[in-house]
Amino acid sequence: MNDETKKQINEKYEREVSKGEKFWPDTIYRDLVMSLGIFLLLILLATFIGIPAEPKADPSDTSYVPRPEWYFLFLFKFLALYGQIPVLGKIEWIATALIPGVAVGILALIPFIEKNSHRYYGKRILSISIMTIMVVGIVLLTMVSEVPTVAEDGSKLIGILQTIMGIAIPLAAYILLFLMSFVFKSSTRTMIWTTVISALAMIAFTGATLALAPESTHEEAEVATTLVDQILAGQDLYSVHCAECHGDDGSVAVIQGVEGLEGEKITPINSRDVLYTITDSAMGEVIAYGRPNAGMPPFGKTYGGELTKGEMDYITIFMRYMWDDRFEAPVIPELFPPLADGEVPSYDVHLQPIVKRYCISCHRAGKENNNYLMTSYDEILKTGDNAANNIIPGDANSYLLQVIQRHEITDANGEVIIGVMPPSNALKPNIMDVFTRWIMNGMPQTAEEAAKISPPPAATPAP
Ligand code: HEC
Ligand code: HEC
CB–CB of 402/446 below 8 Å? Predict the structure, then answer.
């Protein structure tokens, strides 16, 4: 800088100062008002909106997967991606200590190394570019933090996409930018384009990753966070996948109503014999691999089944807390609200959860069930080889009511056409009662429809 420019700058500075405001008290005052405003806003947000507390820590819950707070998720993801890199990925301290250390170190040293005398953005392209790519990277890594690095089916594609986005592109961009800045002395414009193109490429790879991401991981992470939620999730999965052979409470000793396994003798899986001898991890393996020789199919995705590791863990948790007397079950919400005298149940509130727990494992597509599917209101009313007789409004002889009350349906020759339902173990009386009231009152679907035909709640007797 020569004397002439110095003089100019000083004059400009004097001019600005003369029309500007004073740091004390003007600026300080404004800052005070502003910070007070933000403080009040935070108090209001915390009071009226707030953030729900997380469930209490449960030391006996072995399935808890700790995750960092959201603002650290990018680093968490970065470490996971770094682990994917061949050879280097094995040297953990590079990612856990060296890279963050260098990044923080540079921030701390910036006042000493950054001697650029210009304040104009156009003259500070290198630092702005580096920061832009870093911020874009942080946002994108946070966005994909829920996406697994290795897909359930073992495919690496999704991990490769993420590694390109989170590590390869930023690294290449940084190397290019440094070369342009110090070796080739490229134009500002070239550097800006490099930055923009890298950022867009990172966004494109993130889009591809999210499009390929399996949906279940999201639900799973959200659905079951508390122990009760996990038990309920496990019970739902158990009802659909296992109740068919083992019964809704694991007590079945002789399989009935299952193609190919009719009359097969099995050990009740709610017994101490099974629960005390099979550890949690062995249970996971029994479910994943099945007992192919005995007729239990594999359920784990690795062996061609439908369940993820997390889902199988929920089933194990459900079995432990509900059946194993060494575990104390927390209070589990009722399957359906108990009925008052004369109250009419509805499909939405009462029947749907009952059918899901006790019938769906067999009454869904692909199972032997006389083509009677029970996964929706319409299916329950309209499907089945004997659809015309299964459910007849107001008729206590509807086939469905007979079979759940353990009366077989026989044809003209005395041949059994429908066995008792569920085939292995009887429903509890209160559940039979729900089916009966529902069919006798014309099968209302919604709670409102049911309320219309229920008698009004008993009025308080006049004095
Ligand atoms: C198609 C029928 C069928 C289904 C569905 C089924 N199982 Fe089984 N399961 C069996 C048979 C058969 C055996 C062997 C029983 C025996 O040898 O006593 C068995 C055995 C078991 C055992 C005991 C293993 C042992 O070594 O004693 C457990 C635990 C078990 N099943 C859990 C489950 C769970 C959990 C599910 C649902 C994810 C499930 N089963 C689904 C048929 C089935
Ligand atoms: C273990 C498997 C299994 C379970 C659980 C089960 N069913 Fe069935 N269901 C069958 C099979 C198999 C048939 C075919 C008839 C037969 O073999 O008895 C059938 C047939 C029926 C039919 C006759 C359908 C038609 O149109 O012919 C009705 C009604 C029925 N079940 C009701 C129920 C209800 C209600 C539940 C739950 C409370 C239930 N079932 C649970 C296996 C099952």
Answer: no
